[in-house]
Amino acid sequence: MNAISHDVTDLALADEGLRRIDWALAEMPVLRALTERFGRDKPLADTRIAACLHITAETANLARVLTAGGAQVALCASNPLSTQDDVAAALAVHLGTPVFARRGADHDTYYRHLRSALDTRPHITIDDGADLVSEIHKNRNDLLDTILGGTEETTTGVIRLRAMAAEGALRYPIVAVNDADTKHFFDNRYGTGQSTIDGILRATNFLLAGKVFTVVGYGWCGRGVAMRARGMGAKVVVTEVNPLRALEAAMDGFEVMPGVEAARTSDIIVTVTGDKHVVDQAHFEVMKDGCTIANSGHFDVEINIPALRAMAERVVRPREEVEEFQLRDGRRIRLLSEGRLVNLAAAEGHPPSVMDMSFANQALGAAFIRQNHNALAKAVHPVPKEIDEEIARLKLDALGIRIDTLTPEQVAYLASWQEGT
């Protein structure tokens, strides 16, 4: 097959990428089932979709589902360091998908790729971080008349979109895939938990057992990272600004303290908040020599990297994904993957078995928008409960797990109020 519209690093990697895509698909039974259903029902017939996602083997399988459903899909990367170049090549050569993604793309290239995807004039946007929505609202208002709606994959993106909606700036409906139970309970907790530890280990080859490991933020991603770090034998500390989450972390058995206090004793610090400068100059000033910091939030703003650079006398790169900032007082602070999300920059991202559910939400969310866009307000909407539960049932079936159902008597009892003590 001839390559189509694309901007990728090396088309010669296409066969290798296809092998990885097929390997991931074996762990994605829900997407396999949806591919069959979409191929039969064509819920996205004649629908143009632009998707700004991490260009990974799992994303390629989402593209397969959408295409089977009748959509014309164009892909661009949602992070400069998360693209798997062999997968991008396979998408262009073997799967017939326009793709604009290169690992290590600079700022200008990244935004050129966004514009290339938007040049397909999509009816639906699929985002991981809301960059497509932002670009449309800032620079491509000409597309708004034909856009039906969009979906959003990650916590950071949902935060941005809710801020737009609160200001009255959001001009088309968005389905918050991130907030589906089959997404954040599993992808954020188990996916981020495992893949973040994987990225740190690949970048450093550290032994985590016995190290003081601080998790900044105890949302679903933070819960997962803390759980997996403890499983590796680390002494886990949690820092939080939310009193309920801080209390939960304490009752889960983690030590909870302010960030500056934790910075004094931490061997490793990981940020998973979706907020800006949660590790800042005040933290750098008290960090112990050799402290390693990493980010698993979507954007590279959680760690104040400009402040760290200003404090450094020189910067060396002892390993491919490690920058060592040598401070004027002799201390060394190590930053992983340029402060970008370490689970994708230094590793392969979430395992396909959890992305199976996340991307099932994306596929069914897109079909929901196609069918219901006229009834949706220009706001951020939850994934319909019936879609969430359907995905859970499909996953249970794939795992060979059976569950009980309510009897008519139990249904009637739950719907009544007369029976009491």
Describe this structure in words.
By secondary structure, this protein is α/β, with parallel strands linked by helices. The chain folds into two domains: 228 residues, Adenosylhomocysteinase-like (Rossmann fold); 157 residues, 3-Layer(aba) Sandwich (Rossmann fold), CATH 3.40.50.720. The protein is 44% helix and 17% strand. The chain contains 17 helices and 16 strands. The strands form two sheets. It has an eight-stranded parallel sheet, sandwiched between helices. An eight-stranded mixed sheet has the order 10-9-8-11-12-15-14-13. A hairpin with a 4-residue loop joins strand 14 and strand 15. The N and C termini lie far apart (71 Å). The relative contact order is 0.13. The mean pLDDT is 96.
Number of strands: 16
Count the helices. How many? 17
Query: Terminal Cα separation, in Å?
Result: 71 Å
> Average pLDDT, to the nearest integer?
96
- The CATH topology label of the largest domain is Rossmann fold
Radius of gyration equals 22 Å
Strand proportion, as a percent range, falls in 15-25%
Identify the CATH class of the largest domain.
Alpha Beta
Share of helix, binned: 40-55%
What are the low-pLDDT stretches, counting only 5+ consecutive residues below 50? none
Structural class: alpha/beta
Q: For the largest sheet, list the strands in their spatial order.
A: 1-4-3-2-5-6-7-16
Shape: globular
CATH superfamily annotation of the largest domain: Adenosylhomocysteinase-like
Count of all domains: 2
For the sheet with most strands, the description reads:
8 strands, parallel
CATH architecture of the largest domain: 3-Layer(aba) Sandwich
